[in-house]
Every structure is written in C-alpha cells, then in structure tokens.
Amino acid sequence: QVQLVESGGGLVQAGDSLRLSCAASGRTGTMGWFRQTPGKEREFVAAITRSGGSTDYADSVKGRFTISRDNAKNTVYLQMKSLKPEDTAVYYCAARLGVGLDSDDRAYPYWGQGTQVTVSS
C-alpha cells in the first residue's frame, strides 16, 4: 500500500509563493496534484512521471506552478508562484503505479488527506 501525506499549505496573499510537499511511503509511479473547492469537482493541477522526465500542467497553472520529485526522499513537490485567489482550494497529492502521465483523477488509486491553500486578495 502507498500512503501519502501533504504539507506546506497555508494562508498567503495574492502574488505570493508557496511550496507543497507530499511524502510517500511505498512504491509510486506517476504522481500528481489535484485541488478541490467546496461544491466543485476535483481539478487536475499537475503530474510528473516516475523518473521526473515528463510533466503535465493544467492551463490555469502553466507558467506559475512547477511539479518536481526527489525519489531519494520519495517526495513530490508543487512550487506555486504568483498565487491568485482562484488558486484557493484543498490540494491533494495522488499516486499511481503506472509510469505515464494522466490528468484523470480516476487513474490514481492513492490519495493524501489534502492541505488547505488560501490566497487572499
């Protein structure tokens, strides 16, 4: 079994930066970040392959967010820059065993508990 624990969320002002971390236990392949706000479906944010060689981003975060991973630490990061109020959400780390990128949350069987990111205007 894979277990994921997110951290790094918090309250920031628009334009600020924040880095989220996801510590994993067990073997992981592709990992991703998703976010969700009350009343809305879970939204894809970013994904990274097992080797870290390929990444994918939602259009809404391209150029602002960077996903990376440190396999020696079994940890995935989401560096968020130029944060906007619309980025406010609970951010979830997800993992699957496959090696390819996938933006569909249904492809990820393992999920963290989420970490709240709030961006004030």
> How would you classify the helix and strand content by structural class?
mainly beta
Indicate the proportion of strand residues: over 45%
What is the gyration radius calculated from CA atoms?
13 Å
Distance linking N and C termini: 40 Å
* Amount of helix: under 10%
Report the sheet with the most strands, covering strand number, pairing sense and barrel closure: 7 strands, mixed
| Number of DSSP E strands | 11
Compressed to H and E, one letter per element, the order equals EEEEEEEEEEE
Determine the mean pLDDT: 96
Textual characterization of the structure:
With 121 residues, this protein is an all-beta fold. The protein has no helices and 11 strands. It has strands at residues 3-7, 10-13, 18-25, 31-36, 43-48, 55-57, 65-70, 75-80, 89-95, 110-111, 115-120. The strands form 2 sheets. Strands 2, 4, 5, 6, 9, 10 and 11 form a 7-stranded mixed β-sheet that branches. The chain has a 4-stranded antiparallel β-sheet with strand order 1-3-8-7, with no helix packed on it. A hairpin with a 6-residue loop joins strand 5 (43-48) and strand 6 (55-57). The protein starts with a strand and ends with a strand.
